Amino acid sequence: MFGIWGHNKAAEITYYGLHALQHRGQDGAGIAATDGKDLQVHKGVALVNDVFKHAEFKELTGHAAIGHVRYPTGGKDSIEEVQPFIFHAKSESVAIGHDGNIMNKAILRDELESQGSILQTSTDPEILAHLIRRNGQEVSEVSILQALKKMVGAYAFLILTEDKIYAALGARGIRPLSIGKLGDAYVISSETCAFDIVGATFVREINPGELVTISDEGIQSTRFTEPQKRALCSMEYVYLSRPDSDLNHVNVHASRKSMGIELAKEAPIEADVVTGVPDSSISAAIGYAEEMKLPYEIGIIKNRYIGRTFIQPTQELREQGVKMKLSPVRGIIEGKRVVMIDDSIVRGTTSRRIVKMLKDTGAKEVHVRIASPMITNPCYYGIDMSTRDELIAANHTLEEMRDMIGADSIAYLSPEGLERAIVRDDSLEQGLCKACMTGEYPVTLKDAGIKMNDQY
Ligand code: 5GP
Ligand code: SF4
Ligand code: MG
Questions:
Q1: Whose CA is nearest to atom 17 of ligand 1?
Q2: pLDDT value, residue 81
Q3: Ligand 2 pocket, mutate which of 233, 387, 391 (most atoms under 8 A from CB)
Q4: What is the pTM of this model?
Q5: CA of 357 to the centre of ligand 1 (A)
Q6: Is the dihedral of CA 42, 45, 49, 53 positive or negative?
Q7: Which atom number of ligand 1 is nearest to the Cα of residue 71?
Q8: Cβ atoms 30, 84 nearer than 8 A
Q9: What H or E segment, with its residue span, contains residue 98?
Q10: Nearest Cα to 158, choosing from 211, 93, 203?
Q11: Which string of DSSP letters, residue by residue, matches 340-403?
Q12: Tens-digit pLDDT profile for residues 261-292
């Protein structure tokens, strides 16, 4: 998500911002902008570049905008699912963009319906919009704070009205959201890499439980929860974020390299070369090689023109995607004992195919080293790993996985190793969510008032 207040090219800057955030979701993109009188939106089910081809900016005039790229966590693959969502009421309109997952949405929906609200979807932004406007209230800091207090889960929201942008981060700060400045304008982004691209400077992260309001009067901050230890998604460091972003003042590339170093300390192996699965595992592979004093080589090449395999909807397509996407470098692999670093294993598709590819290319041995802990628990916080069934590590022993993947050996980084690679001190700000790896959930189903059910 990206937003800007106070710039006469707000929508265009948001386009460049979204472009830098494209890796966060490729299923759709949208921008809503305001000139102080009206809200306009343009969106599509495609990559940012294909949704915006210049003509759109004539409509999207004004000094403020928010934009969103869609990462599917359920729901349909259609334009109705693409954010920002616009809600019109008598005197005002509001556009909402959301990252994460509201765990108690079914309960909130029932509550709203029993009070007479008519909801068209059960998306998180629509529930927020109805909670804000409950009892005919206007969109204001007060009504937003009341609404946020009811929402349990992981969230970052950007809310645009004709006269303000609001940015909110859930109580534990599971998802990332930062503020920057571009001249006199304020910018907000999920990742700091977007600030660099539009020429903005980083100001600070939004705090867990904080609501920031930006308008022509400047920037204001209030809280809707007491400060709690942060639980920033460790998968942001492992896989999701771009290496040039900083999260919680820790650079993503540097953290991945440290994960590789920790992994080498925990799980060394005799080998000839170290290679990483592009792009997200390269930093960890460099770290592993450095610590092992082995050469790091580009043993696998990625075709740049194919999106992330994980995003494909079916297993069949996913497998097809991996094949199209990655090719071995024969001169590096043939006859060698190869350490193959991947950032994570979810279903095991990527590792299995790559090990086979490396062996088919003549690798003498392939040792798989995973630069994050085993994923054994579902994520309730907006990352697409929502059932235990699909997680290979939840259903198999390490030896079974080694066999299924076809590797000569396999090892994962420990949760403690991951923590050492990312966390600098024991302050409130530096806490991590590792729930999918350890089962210790910073926000539980019980907190959200729900029993274990089919959804999870
Ligand atoms: P698998 O192929 O095991 O199902 O998925 C793991 C691979 O998918 C890794 O190579 C990782 O880089 C990539 N990946 C794509 N999207 C995600 C995601 O949202 N989370 C995780 N952990 N890995 C992802
Ligand atoms: Fe991130 Fe895992 Fe926590 Fe989900 S459960 S927020 S993927 S660390
Ligand atoms: Mg990968």
A1: 310
A2: 85
A3: 233
A4: 0.93
A5: 18
A6: negative
A7: 19
A8: yes
A9: strand 93-102
A10: 211
A11: EEES--SSSHHHHHHHHHHHHTT-SEEEEEESS----S---SSSS---GGG-HHHHS-HHHHHH
A12: 999 999 999 999 999 999 899 999 999 999 99
